[in-house]
Structures are given as C-alpha cells and as structure tokens.
Amino acid sequence: MKKAESSAEKRAGFRGAKLRTCRAALRALLTPAWPVLPRLLLGLLLALGACNSEAGAPPAPPDLLPPAALVPVLADLHVAEARAQHNARAPDTMQALYQSQEKAIFARRHVAARQFQESVAYYGGRPAELEAIYAALTDTLSMRQVRLRTREKLPTPTREPGHGQ
Questions:
Q1: pTM of whole model > 0.85?
Q2: Rounded to an integer, what distance in angstroms lies between the CA atom of residue 39 and that of residue 41?
Q3: What CA–CA distance (Å, rounded) separates 125 from 26?
Q4: How far apart are CA 40 and CA 37, in angstroms?
Q5: Residues 6+ apart with CB under 8 A from 128
Q6: What is the spatial distance between Cα 23 and Cα 164, in angstroms, rounded to a whole number?
Q7: Distance CA 23, CA 26 (A)
Q8: Which of 8, 36, 85, 96 has the fewest CB within 10 Å, making it most exposed?
Q9: DSSP 89
Q10: Cα 49 to Cα 70: distance, rounded to the nearest angstrom
Q11: CB-based contact 104:46 (threshold 8 Å)
Q12: For helices 91-108 and 67-87, what crossing angle results, to 10°?
C-alpha cells in the first residue's frame, strides 16, 4: 500500500512540475526578444504537448482577443515574418523590419501588443482552443495563397497603340 501512495504522489508531483515548467516556458516565449512566429509555433508545441490540462491555465484577460479577431492578426504576422526573412540579409535587419511590420499590423488591426501577448498566453493554456485557432489560421493562409495565385494567373490588360490617349 505504501508503494501505491508513493507512486501516486510522484505522479502528482510530476504533473505539478510539468505545469509550472509549461507556464514558465510560455512566459519566456512572450518576451519581445523573439520574433512572433517562432514564439507561437514553440508555444503551440508546448501547449499541445506539455500543457495537456487546463488546470492552472491563466485566467482570461479582460481584453481577450476572440479567435475570430486573433486569426487575422496571426495570419498577417506570419506573412510579415516570411517577408522579413525573405527581404533581409542580416538577422538584425530582419528583426528591425519585422518589428516595424508588427507595429503596423497591430495598429491596422486595432490590437495592442500586450493584448495580443496576453491572448496568446491565455489560449496557450487551452490546447483545444489553440488547435482550433491554428486550424482556422491554416485555412486563412491557404485561402490567401489561392487568391494570390489566382491573381497572378489573370492576364494583364494591355492597351492597344493609339487607344486611351
């Protein structure tokens, strides 16, 4: 009987340590030193793998972004990071370019950086909701890609000589 209690106590201690470690990792991911995409992807992996329980998840912030508002912001940030990586040759140039685009995205979407970070932390502790958000994000990015490719395939209107002047 003593061994069963010892084993159960070990499991409970492990779960508690796992949640504390997960929360600490999520807080570290929300520091502005990392670009958003790696933070979000790593956060997603941690949330789905390590934070398999909503017990101890952060409470909802007062200005929580609902998934419908969060998905377009995430999509814009993913595209901005891809552009920054493609256009910048040096890491510090990429970081500066991305940060300026991030500020512009937050302004255009009427989202504060703190509000975004708190929302990501909130959903990071709720794997089922985060998985649904990333499924919607994948769909959104796929649709943007299809629209972009469709636009590229359309013939460019040309003017005939002597017309339109």
A1: no
A2: 6
A3: 9
A4: 5
A5: none
A6: 64
A7: 5
A8: 8
A9: S
A10: 22
A11: no
A12: 150
Q: Measuring CA to CA, how many Å separate 141 from each of 112, 134, 136?
A: 22, 10, 9
In one-letter notation, the amino acid at residue 36 is V
pLDDT of res. 2 = 46
Backbone angles phi, psi at 55, to 5 degrees: -65, 130
The pLDDT of residue 108 is 96
Report yes or no: 78 and 37 within 8 Å, Cβ to Cβ. Answer: yes
pLDDT, tens digit only, all 165 positions of the chain: 444 445 445 444 444 444 455 555 555 545 555 555 655 665 655 555 554 455 666 788 899 999 999 999 999 999 998 888 888 788 888 888 889 999 999 999 999 999 999 999 999 889 999 999 999 999 999 999 998 888 877 665 666 555 554
For 163, residues 6+ apart whose C-beta sits below 8 A from its C-beta are: none
Answer yes or no: are the C-beta atoms of 83 and 154 closer than 8 Å. no
Q: Which H/E stretch holds residue 161?
A: none
Sign (positive or negative) of CA dihedral 52, 54, 56, 61: positive
Kindly tell me the burial class for residue 67, based on how many C-beta atoms sit within 10 Å of its own C-beta (0-12, 13-18, 19 or more).
Answer: middle
Tokens representing residue 63 in the block:
């200005």
